[in-house]
Write a structure and sequence with these properties.
This protein has two domains: 40 residues, no CATH class; 103 residues, no CATH class. 66% of the residues lie in helices and 11% in strands. The protein has five helices and three strands, in the order αααβαββα. α2 packs across α3, α3 runs antiparallel to α5 and α4 packs across α5.
């Protein structure tokens, strides 16, 4: 968290030096601040973790946008065609996420993807119950959910 604060501070300094408070200028300052922290302070563990986390976050962002587009197209196709391809099911998905924050982020991102909805978490916080509109069988569905959870946890840990 300290590294992010420093990065934001460097972005604000960049913006102040240029005298132009715009989103583009702030983004450029954020990128330059990240590069300064990533390469200049890489020997400090806090900044090294931060430098490794940002590329993972960017990869996850593009992965999530891709999944979002694929899910939207699948649901739109099903709505627009006369035959329905839905095979709804409720799945008990064992979680690798341990903390409340990790479970919340995983459940909410699953719910944001069209065709899936997080229903409940077991009392022992080890199982997430998910409603899936397109159940392709137990193993393929669990595999895609496992990959999704792994990518979220890769960013958070």
């Amino acid at each position: 968290m300290i590294a992010l604060t420093w990065n934001l501070l460097l972005a604000l300094i960049w913006t102040a030096l240029w005298g132009n408070l715009s989103g583009t200028n702030l983004l450029i300052g954020f990128i330059f601040g990240y590069l300064v922290l990533a390469f200049g302070l890489r020997d400090i563990p806090e900044f090294a973790r931060y430098a490794a986390r940002v590329p993972r976050l960017i990869r996850f962002f593009f992965y999530f946008i891709g999944e979002l587009v694929k899910s939207n197209l699948k649901v739109a196709y099903d709505v627009l065609t006369p035959t329905h391809h839905m095979r709804p099911a409720v799945i008990a998905f064992p979680l690798e996420a341990k903390t409340d924050g990790e479970i919340t982020i995983v459940a909410n991102l699953i719910s944001l993807t069209p065709g899936t909805l997080s229903l409940d978490v077991s009392r022992d916080r080890k199982v997430l119950y998910i409603h899936a509109m397109y159940f392709d069988g137990d193993e393929p569905t669990r595999q895609s959910l496992r990959e999704f959870e792994q990518r979220v946890l890769e960013v958070m840990r």
